[in-house]
Amino acid sequence: MNAQLKYVVDELKALYPKKDYNIIEFDGFEPDQLVQILSNVICTIESKEAVNTRSENREMTIKRLLNSLYIMKYRPPSGNEYDLAQSLFLGEKSAILPLLEWLLKERPTLEKRAYLGRYLIKIEVPPALRGDSNLEELFENYEQLLETFKDAHREREQHLSAGSNTGELRGDLAVMEREREIVVAKVATLQKTRVEGSKANAALLARVKALRESRAKRDMLLEQKARLQTTCVEMERFVARTKQQVAEARRAAHGVTPQGLLQRAEEEEKVSTYIANEKIPADMKSGQTQLQLLREVASQTCLTRSDLAQVEQQVRALSSEVNALLERRMAAADPADDKLTPFKQQAAMLGRKKEAAAEALGELKKESAALKSKLEKIQGQLMPGEELPLTEEQFKKYMGQLKPRTELFKAKRSQLSSQTAECGVLSRTLEILRSNHELAQRQLGDEERRLGLSGYSSTASQLAEVNATKTELDLQKESKLEALSKTILELNQIIASKKAKLAPAIQGFKLLNFLFKCFTALLSSLRTLNYPDFLLFVMLNGTK
């Protein structure tokens, strides 16, 4: 206990140099002072301003401390958070001293946890408010920002763990800068003595300039050629699509005569007349009947069990009456009518087939319209450079054009074999050049080691990449933190406004609940008095 107290006092002296703590004074602190010291340490770890616990409500203080300890993943020795909360509320030294020791020992790790917990702990949105579309969209954006912040922080930690010390890098950079100045001076000396003193210096510079201009002109011409080739391909595809449409139109018009067109028009006219004069009125009549039925059902009051029993009895009576009428009709049937029965049945069957054909025709028209719209949609989604599928005639024409191309392919293949042999020669030349390049690199490395500049170029490039990556990650993290803070503020504002809007409704609900309980109590008291139903009904209406 004394060692623990001594450690806590020494760490508090280092953390707060202006406050002169000692073991005797700290051992005699009151519970309120211990809670204040614990609050100050937690606020320091969280990089927040210290809170005066005397002016703050004690329950709010304990709630704030427990929330911070939850973020820092503190586990009480007893394993019971309720006992910890009670000990903190009473300011017991036996619970606060171990807690202070743990906070001061793990301060670097806890600072990182508190920093991450400030942004990674999600805001709890009440389920009643999750139905708002704007709030739901804002909450999804908030979750995406959380994931982005996690990725940015993970990349930054990996980069910092993989990188070297900044001071050492700066020292190496200063040494390399001095070595670079020495090398630049030597190169300038060599340029003055060997290059500028040469007699063919001006001619070489003129040839290099002419070569640079010719290469730039060649690149410009190649780019222009590529653009023209792309335009030609697009125009060829457009012409192919147009020819295909014309061929389809001609094929559709092939073999069509005026009599055939007239017959098709008459058939379409008959079908349209049947649909307009018979099918549509029948559908309208059935729809009106169903609508009238639904209106009658909607206009009626809610049926009770007795009403349902009465309706079922009426249905049974009507069914028996209908059966009796059918039996009378069959008994008094005329033989002449029996002869006409097959024809009537055949006519009814034809009528049903006609209706089924009309329904099938309507479905086919709907399907055709849907397919046409789908085709137009797909054609609209095609890129300007994409082609439509080939038709049968186009495929035959393509096969006819393929024969001369086959001969051309054979000729090109022979050319390709010769070029392959040439490519082998060039590959061998490239290998020789690479070996010469490696030899030159080794000579350059030996020269650098001789001058004391070994690894200068590779180290400088790596250092530049490390600095650029670190700067980029810091900028990304700063932007994500700002967006995350802004989103959290907006969520808090929206939740507060929704709670303010729901407050009147909650008050009204409480009033209605109170009235319901009063009427329920009144009703139960009246039932216990065994009043007649009519008197009970009159009294209830009077209370309303």
From TrEMBL:
Subcellular location: Cell projection, Cilium
Coiled coil stretches, renumbered: 354-381
One Pfam short name: IFT81_CH
GO molecular function, a single term: tubulin binding
Leader peptide range in chain numbering: none
Keywords per UniProt: Cell projection, Cilium, Cilium biogenesis/degradation, Coiled coil
Chief localization: other
Entry keyword annotation includes Nucleotide-binding: no
One of the GO BP terms on file: intraciliary transport
Cellular-component GO terms for this entry: ciliary basal body; intraciliary transport particle B
Annotated IFT81 calponin homology domain residues: 4-124
Family label: Belongs to the IFT81 family.
Protein name per the record: IFT81 calponin homology domain-containing protein
